[in-house]
Amino acid sequence: MQRAIKVTVNGKEYEREVEPRMLLVHFLREELGLTGTHIGCETTVCGACTVMLEGHTVKSCTVLAVQANGKNLETIESVASDGDLHPIQEGFWNEHGLQCGFCTPGMIMSVKQLLGDNPNPSRDEIRHAIEGNLCRCTGYQHIVKSVESAAKAMVQE
Amino acid sequence: MIAASFDYSAPETLADALRVLSDDPEAKILAGGQSLIPIMKLRLSIPSQVVDLGGIIDLHAIAEEEGIIRIGSMTTHEQVEHSELLSEKCPLLVAAASGIGDVQVRNRGTIGGSVAHADPAADYPAALQALDAKVKVVSSAGEKIIPIDEFIVDALTTALEPDEIITEIHVPTESTGIGTAYETIVQPASGYAIVGVAARIGLSEGNISFARVGITGVGSKAYRALAVEKALEGQPAKDDTYGIASRVAAEGVEALEDLHASSEYRAHLATVFTCRAIAAAAGRAQ
Amino acid sequence: MATTTTPTTKGFVGKRVRRTEDPRLITGTATYVDDVTRPGMLYAAVLRSPYASARISSISIEKAASLPGVSAVYTGEDVKAVGPVPCAGSMPTLRVPHHKILAQDRVYYVGHPVAAVVAIDRYVAQDAVDQIEVEYEPTECVADPEKALESDAVRVHPEYDDNVAFTFHAEGGDTDAAFAAADVVVSERVTVPRLAPSPMETRGVVAEYDEGTEELLVYSSTQIPHLLKTQLAVQLSLPENHVRVIAPEVGGGFGSKCNVWAEEALTCFAAMDLKQPIKWIENRRESINVVAHGRGHVDHLEMAASKDGTITALRFKILQDIGGHHQLLTPIIPTLAVIMIPGLYKIKNFTADLTGVFTNLPPTDLYRGAGRPEATYVLERVVDKLADKLEMDPAELRLKNFPAADEFPFETATGLSYDSGDYAKAFNIALENVGYDSFLKKQEKARSKGRLLGLGISTYGEVCAFGPSPALPAGGWESATVRVEATGKVTVMSGASPHGQGGETAYSQLAADALGVPMEDVVVIHGDTGKVHWGVGTFGSRGTAIGGTAVHLALEDIVAKGKKYAAHILNASLDSIQFNQGIFSSNEVEEKLTFQELALEAAVAQKLPPDTEPGLSATRFFEPPNFAFPFGAHICTVEVDGDTGQVEILRYIAVDDIGNVINPMLVDGQLHGGVAQGLGPAFLEEVVFSEDGQLLTGTFMDYAIPKAKDMPWIESERTVTPSPVNPLGAKGVGEAGTIGSLPAFVNAVVDALSHMGVEHIDIPMTPQKVWNLINERSQS
Amino acid sequence: MKIKGQQTLTTPREQVWEALLDPGVLARALPGCQALDPVGENHYKIRMKLALAAVQGLFEGKILLQDVQPPNNYKLHIEGAGKVGFVNGEGHFHLEKLSDVETVVHYEGDVRIGGMIASVGQRLMDMTSKMMIRKFFVSLKEILSEQ
Predict the structure, then answer these.
(1) What angle do CA C583, C585, C591 make, to 5 degrees?
(2) How many CB pairs under 8 A join C and D?
């Protein structure tokens, strides 16, 4: 019961045959080898698997690979370009917005969505925007600071 | 947490989708998947086939016509949340949508999927009850327009037949002079409402001339708090009125119980948040 | 960033240096265990018991084994030659039931592994698990530690005559006399529910067996690769030098990966049996279910005091829920609560009685704080109660009982020697930062208007930076090797196994400063027993104080050896050689030698002194003479919504003393994260089981770990009292926040409701619990 | 999970009693019951497909009727297990004669749910059991009205 799908991931087109039950996150990680997207909770809570589908963040453990057929995807691997870190990545690095790093790729994708919609978010708005991303290490304070720092850098750019 | 095998189709027209459904009674409709896919991953749902409505473009529109706003069933919570039309003409629905889950879930989940799932703790049904919303369903036999109150039958149970698809949700354009509010307390892990109260309050010369109150999370389905509405109508718009009227918010309702809230606590929260929602709505009506 | 630099010049220690491990983590290029693939790799999945207590009457694997893509199905019978899951406890009364890696005949808790499948991918593996048919004969179970101690309780392990897993008694001074002479006695019983450690990365193993070399290569998401290597060799009857364990990038541990798990040996067994690499990745439901829970206590503390507020004695009773089996350190963890029960106070007399009890629940074991949060929680609750009883200000009461700064090292009644500290100083700063007096006024005013404001104080002391070795079951030292490559690049190999703390950065800072090289020239290797030959691991806040010190000592050796070479090469006396900012020089000669030049000389070995060996490399072990004792004061202010029971944290003040600091930014991060893991249990977290041992909070939909909006802004400050027990003067920071935060929150909420007569609320203080109390009190 | 409640039926007590002990009636009234086969006196094998919208589970098990005291009381013991977990429960039924044509069915019981469904679905347990009881009595009333 394989289905042929064609997706564009990080600007590159892929064609694969997949089982309908294959989750998008497994497709990205195992079929395409893009292991930067992680699996944390499997119940649409933790957001470690967050990727962009047609420009919107989704939890890729709750999307079937077949649903992404014909669609455009962006993962953490596309955030830096030509070795230059994105200001959000710089923000996380500078402000120690990560410890074990497991939630970080999903967190960065959510922040990318946030700063795209709202270039100057308040602390409450930042916390609200990352409600769908759990971090067990940082207590979130340095993540909030990382986002503030990234927002500042992006406005200045 | 891996789903059992199933077949998959992604029809591009409603007619095709209806055909699949009538051919395969064990098929399940996949809208945003934010409820169905987790259940399938736990193997609590093992459909023979999943019919993905994502490719049917007709189901995505929001349009206003003669005082009715028609929201395509595949409209995401995010689209409702950020719809200019709805912000202006049906802010209550926007308030309910913006409280659902988190950003990622709102980007993916749909209003049709939420209504069809009929989760007793979902946010939309409270607002839809308060709005006297209607659900348009289509089958190969034709179409029906069902009031929300009749559509949601019980916990996770609706009037939707296996061969039917929800195509639209109809809500009224809010009249001037009516204020609305959605107040909720959520279960901290899942983000589901423990209690969510949607209120629409109209005022006339300092008195309440119109009241609609929808409550989710308390009973096995969202309901209109008719006793509250009755206790409000014609009364002066002041805190005492709201407090007294709210006392009957959960009257006659068998309040649910789970780890996070006993039935007593739920019933109590219903009164608190009903009062808050009414006060906030009345404040906006003035 | 004003506060952050990526320095290329000297002087890194003590600075907010951004982390060297981050580039791979923020770009998605790091390799966690689930990112490891090997040619021909198969996937394992585990079938677990749905019953808390049952006999297994039959297991039928035929359907599962015949599914296309299934390579093997294993039951307890197949793996019975594999050695048991180890337990390191050694108290004389300890009962250690044989802990098989797959259940045979009986299951003891929901989630107990019963069978395992190996298949072509994880989808088929799960399909096959569903096809295994097990017939269980459910038996009566006991899922409550207090009920398990009752004389008629069903026995978890029928081979013993009761459910007592061990008892432990400790005492100091003359407690009975002190209680007899006391002016006041107060007491409290608290329960500390089971917590799911919940690192964002679940456990996972990849095992590969090389038939030719007979070597077993194991990737495991672990905090203790070296200990795991030894244990796997024992369990699988392999020569230890044929086992290599790699802890790749580890996505959080918090103690839960400081263990030796059945699934590790199981995956290795299957890889050896099938001669194919095998991956096992735990799902979140398994993680919440079976990864040893933290806490699980029922604690009772009685406190005697004189009316001037001097605390004279403690009687402490701990009931530790063990679960159905021990894990690696299960019986040891609650003894840490015993030795830390006096906290920061000068209490001369104490007795403690600890009982470990078997229940039909998953095992408990260490989780961030491990015993110390429990002790601090009950102590700080009872101190508040004492203040209440004496009508004394709770801050004043605490200040009265601290040892003075000149009393260190301070010997406690429990036999510890607190290394250094100025407890009053940190506490006074916290009081000042929160505006203690003005808050009390504000609170009174708010109360008169019906608003419920509260302030909670917690002071804590922590025993950490484990060793010394005799105090631990498996070595309290740490090792480090510093190897200088011919090009002058520096490789630091540490036996510690950091997993998010930033050890690579901290060790690089030490190396860069000691050798005068840029941080970019330093590579830190850890978590690979094939590269780092000796190690204990990262747990118990020991990464810097012990692991860092070993690095520091090895660096000192390198410098000493370098000076020797330099003296010979420069033709100067050894005593005259200076090493500064990467340059060897002498006032006797004009010529200088850079560190890089010296490194090359050491490698080519053309001009070395005759009595030396070539190469610039040093290995050192650090064995601390004592533990280190961080301390601090956390103060939390809250407002309770009387209508709903919801609690809002208004301010959170932390003043901590963790000794000398290598990187303040990393320390802040550890504290914030620690506070989150203390506040989680305060109002959100609890692993809930039904009376019949069924897990009711099996996913993050029901087990609530803090989200961004749940956490307050932490206003953090530090005092610095260097520890004398290691040359870095570091104490340890990993667990401090977790220990200090819980009582601060609880005391604050109780304070907010104290005028209603509320004396205690058990954690987690959910809105429902708080409202129930308010409702009760307002009705009575 | 404790369950307690009552339902008033406009049917004479004897008729309600007979219905409640009639495997044919039970098979129709128990929500999702696909088969109810007697294996002994007051002892049945049961197969149920419990379905709540998309959520569904297949359970097989047994039903025992105990302490049968016509037309007043009996105890119902049910055990079922499936891939997603298991359900065990006891219910005590007491029939109170309100009038010649009215009967109150009092029920009180304890339901224990285990395995995967317990660990992921506790939120839905209370509403599910309440709904099943509602459905049971709706069907029972329907069957009684046909008689």
Answers:
(1) 105
(2) 43
